[in-house]
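To the wet lab folks,

You asked to see what we're planning to order before we commit. Fair enough. Below is the target structure as tokens, and below that is the sequence we designed to fit it. If anything looks off to you, flag it before the synthesis order goes out.
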């Protein structure tokens, strides 16, 4: 059943690292409470990212210039380093792999389930995303969790990654079909 929640138009096969902290409490924090839980470094990075977006809007014509690309790459490097520092605080153990991924949730091997809700940290190509998730469905092999609370910048990164990965996978499938023809 969990595998059927995913189809090629709404999810992608993406193995990324996921850290699950199982929760017994019946209520999950909302996005506002989640924002208050974020480490100071993450809050500062999110504030800088908002300022960066405003500045990019002002210089949109220069966005393709070499200096703009260099600044963007530098920003990506800083974000990756900060995300690595934040994920290292979670420890090297208890990281698992997702099977499917979408902007709305993810699936993992059913054997990993130790409850119905958890605090989630995902190490993605776009950086570390943290939030809360609840078990939505499971079958003999997989358990699907949907995101309950995410910060808006993290949700935007998830959507961008899901769309880009989906596009890449559909393009690869089309190319394979064309080769067979």
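Sequence we intend to order:
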């Amino acid at each position: 059943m969990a595998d059927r929640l995913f189809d090629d138009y709404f999810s992608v096969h993406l193995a990324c690292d996921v850290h699950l902290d199982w929760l017994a409490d019946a209520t999950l924090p909302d996005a506002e409470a989640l924002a208050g839980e974020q480490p100071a470094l993450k809050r500062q990075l999110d504030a800088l990212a908002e300022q960066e977006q405003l500045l990019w809007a002002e210089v949109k014509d220069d966005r393709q210039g070499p200096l703009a690309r260099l600044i963007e790459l530098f920003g990506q490097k800083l974000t990756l380093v900060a995300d690595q520092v934040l994920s290292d605080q979670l420890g090297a153990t208890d990281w698992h792999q997702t099977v499917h991924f979408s902007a709305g949730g993810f699936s993992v091997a059913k054997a990993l389930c130790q409850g119905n809700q958890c605090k989630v940290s995902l190490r993605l190509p776009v950086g570390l995303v943290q939030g809360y998730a609840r078990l939505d469905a499971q079958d003999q092999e997989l358990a699907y969790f949907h995101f309950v609370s995410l910060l808006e910048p993290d949700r935007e990164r998830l959507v961008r990654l899901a769309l880009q990965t989906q596009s890449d996978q559909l393009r690869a499938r089309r190319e394979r079909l064309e080769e067979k023809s």
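Structural context that might help your review: The chain has one domain: 3-24+32-176. The first strand starts at residue 12 and ends at 13.

Thanks,
Computational group
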